[in-house]
Predict the 3D structure of the following.
Amino acid sequence: MSPRLHLGVFFTGVGPQLVWTDPAFSTHTHIDTFVATAQTLERGLFDAFFLGEGLRVRENRGRVHDLDVAGRPDAITQLAALAAVTERIGLVATQNTTYNFPADLARRLASLDAVSGGRAGWNIVTTDNAWTGENFRRGGWLPHERRYERAGAFVETAKALWGGTAVDRHDDLISVTAPPTVPARPVLFQAGDSAGGRDLAARHADVVFSANTDYDKAVAYAADLRRRLAGYGRSADSLRILPGAAVVLGDTPAQAAEKAAWIQREQVTGPRALAFLEQYWGKDLSGYDPDGPLPDIEPAEGELDPSRGTIAIEHRTGKAERIAGWRALAAERKLSIRDLVVEVTPQHSTFVGTPGQIADEWTRYVRDRAVDGFNILPQLLPGTIEDIVDKLVPELQDRGVYRTAYEGTTLRDHLDLPA
Amino acid sequence: MSVTRPHLALEVDGAGAHPAAGHAGPAGDIAALTARVTTAEAAGFALVTIADAALPPPGGPARVEAGVRASFLSRRTQRIGLAPTLHVTVTEPFHLATQLASLDHASLGRAGWVVGADHSAAVYATVGLPRLDGAALRQELADGIDVARQLWDSWEDDAIIRDRVTSRFLDADRVHHVNFTGERFSVVGPLITPRPPQGQLVVLGADTLGVTGRLDVALVAAPTVDEVADRARQARTDGAPLVFADLDVLLGADRLAALDAVAPWGPAQRLRHTGSAEDLRDLLERLAGLVDGVRLHPAELHVDLPRLATGLGRRPVTGPTLRDTLGLHRPANRFATAG
Ligand SMILES: Cc1cc2nc3c(=O)[nH]c(=O)nc-3n(C[C@H](O)[C@H](O)[C@H](O)COP(=O)(O)O)c2cc1C
């Protein structure tokens, strides 16, 4: 069988990605929006619908960050509701291993798998930061360098409980005495990109959800992961690679480009550009003109404020050097604050073009085994979802790289994972 | 005219209250539960409660977590309230509040919460927390309810403004840190979830937990009507807006001997009715003068529920929210700023 593309949608619920100023915007917090989205994706024969996790409302300098969409449900609760109104699509919850009790989370995931008839997935993240921990019983208890050790022990515990084995394990990272859950086998996703994250994926994950979307990066990443898999005695085919991707479709290339430019303008508004810099400067910059030069004042002492969400460790330190680099870049290319932010915001790769163009590009990715599919991060709701299902999916089907009907009933079936 | 008092609740976990009812079928049998709850909805029950525990009942199979069951049911029902048991003792208070708020959103305002207080050594061992009892346990429950209520209010109803002029999605002045400090945990907040449709979920709990003043509905389990009356009075004095009596029910007294031969029911821990539907209606009428509602625990759900459905003579409740059904007002937000 020639390789096939697997598609998911990552419904993040926070951050600048989702354009709420779009006149057609569906309230992203309303259950009806979730139901409509999941049902549209099921019509498009998607493998999975994902919910992200962020357990503290983002802030900017101690105040609730007010510019981006915010507000999201508990993922497992919401997916259980969606299980009742869908039949085939996989339902994946991002859940962290630091601020959960292993037996409790394993039980809830098994429950989702049970009520959905084998459609549950767990996107394993570590969320070790102490700022998020302030909402939990043991805030900040886990040192950053041990987060994947805890994650490994947590996942092993969950797998045992799902498989019918009681667990009695007590050490400095985990304390569980628990009987098995209802029988279950959620598909395991992993999203961390550090060596520890990749290693956890190689040991336990069925799917990786990476940020390595550009073709060359994707190829290198796949090679690295397959090497790690072999180290754990797993076959190269036992893991699916689904990088995150944004998609902007147009009837013509020009129309698509125009729409992509509009989306980016809406995503990087003047106030957002200033708020982005405030996070680094640690000072009020509201008096600066976002279309003018970078702030001339010196940033506050100390490292980066963690309150704008999960930040990879390498971005949490080295603030002064980063700001110096931006100043040099802005001076050299005469960038305004807004231009600079567009330039340096870590963006998920965006595919822009006609449905035919993107289908051609994706066909190459999957035939070369650079990826097994994509996890799409919608920018327009419901626009992105409807465009992809109605326009891109038929093109992929025409090229023979996308299913024309669900063959199985479980998420494991959809992903062609070993039984 | 259809009778609407007392309010009726139904416990739907397991196979029934009689020990001979055995355990529910295959653990993941959500289809059977869905059929039961839709029957209860058509029969005029105001809500179902879904008992749960981290550990399976002795000799029984592992259970599907009650919040997950309730959420699934939220999209298969239209009017009935859904109140899972979640235990304060062995969960993260922040997750608990988020899960319940999400259930209220998914059900468009039909969620309740039965406050669970499991505190056996075995259940604490599942999470590795130190075991609490007595006054420390009561304090933990009080803190768990208080922080959930604060978190449900942490977003004001109109916090999402989508103001293009100022580019603000939220009004940051209407999303509040709760800065809760309890005896054993603290939570900064706000919740990650906007305010639930009901503002506050309907919080139910036993009158024996020592937190009656924090409940919306106190559940009274006592074997005689006189004791129910006394305890109901006390619960009201302690501040519970509504009181429900727990009642075992077996319709058709002729079934009792056969069931008891398999496993004797034992002395009643709560009111118990074995007899006809007509006598049950009389009992309910009598209880209506003493309590606001009655929660039924059928001896065998698969036999007694269909009999209740025909025997109670009720129409489905109209909702739309559980608070509406129970006549509880939607509370003002404690953080709401004037103007
Ligand atoms: C595509 C993608 C999606 C992610 N989604 C989440 C999420 O929803 N919640 C979360 O806490 N972390 C999320 N993460 C963060 C990762 O779990 C991880 O913490 C981060 O990438 C840093 O990697 P490391 O933990 O291996 O250092 C995501 C990462 C990627 C690449």
Remarks:
- Chain A has a mean pLDDT of 93.
